[in-house]
Amino acid sequence: MKLNNIEVQNIYMLGIGGVGMGALAQYFLYYGCQVYGYDRVRSEICEILENKGAKIHYLPNITLIPDDIDIVIYTPAIPIDFEELQIIKNKNLPIYKRSDILAMITPQLETYAVAGSHGKSTITAMLSHIWYTAHRDFIAMIGAIVKDYENNFFINGEPKEFIVEADEYDKTFLKFTVDTGIITSIEPDHLDIYKNLDALKDAFREFAHKIKNEIWIDENVILHIDKNINTYGLSNSSDIYAYNIRLDDGATVFDIYSNYHQIKIENLHLHAAGMHNIRNATAAIAIALSKNINIDQIKKAINSYPGLKRRLDLIYNGKNKKYYDDYAHHPTEIDTLFDALKTLYPDKTFCAIFQPHLYSRTLYLADDFATSLSKWDRIILLDIYPAREQPIEGVTSEWLLSKINNNNKYLMSKDELLTNLSNISEDILVTIGAGDIDRLREPIKNKLIEYEA
Predict the structure, then answer these.
(1) CA distance linking residue 94 with residue 299, whole number of Å
(2) Considering the entire predicted model, what is its pTM?
(3) Percent of the chain, pLDDT > 70?
(4) How many Cβ atoms sit within 10 Å of the Cβ of residue 110?
């Protein structure tokens, strides 16, 4: 296959097991390329890739990189001083960030890009499920594994459309060619890149100006741009809005009215909990209506939307305890998670087991994290997950714990957590974070099964 007139057959990917890299690897595998890669752990994504023919190794070993590699792709999660990356650079092989490759793909297809501080993966997954239900010819790359599909990569037919997350980290989204875009929210994050909220807003403004056709922005986002924008939300002042929201047998039922499309849709059933997911669904429906997907197909897709792994993901439903896992790694996401659980279980008590992600994020948002975590009945902090970062002096989970206004708070290692699970009296446990806390899902579930046997 060709990328920007580069003939590509053999590809090497550093950090291949991440969700973004894994989706891109599947794209190349689908088109008949041979994919090789390195990651330090064998993730669920790695298993998917290996089953499709990718060759992956899990210890750094430059001898396992074939001599006939055409291009190398890496993720910013790989440290710049990583040995394999340095040796590859010295070999003068063509090397690209993942975002550079996506920037080569987006001009080739009609691209729908979902940007924002929160909700990107969910809206991208909802769009992908609607498109799949409607039998569209498309590709999608999603930042989380979609339940039932057990994958984060969709491809159907001879693709003409591309549904993709437009991540603001490292200014990735500014590289894309976008036909239709969504902005869900703009909140302080990635301040190691942007330094302040004004610079972050400037980047989102630049992203919005690059969009060729429709742009849909959440009604709560204030982004002054010299361009026509459409709004979505829950108020009738928006161009499309959800209303008459009610609960029915475990589902949230709602109606949609679009002033923009002059269409009303009644009795949509969504099984993903939380008002934030009504907003997410409204955004996805707006794009679907603009692309002439019929109402019956939209209703069918919303009703059957299976949800994402690590998004209010019920791992264990026992006699006395329930255990959820969630990817939340920003204070607003933790607040949204708490509110959704309180709506589902107003009379229950909750234990948050939180692994902070990145020293820089913990530093910049420490007070907001402390406020969000103080609401829970019990808080357990794990050590900060560093990802791509080096430690920042004084920024530790112990320091964050000291800011939390709650007497029922603890700092534990992963082993200590598993040892002390039987002492957690709360009704509902939730592991929270974007690091490797998800590897505790099975150990915690097994311990709970043992205790409730």
Answers:
(1) 46
(2) 0.91
(3) 100
(4) 17
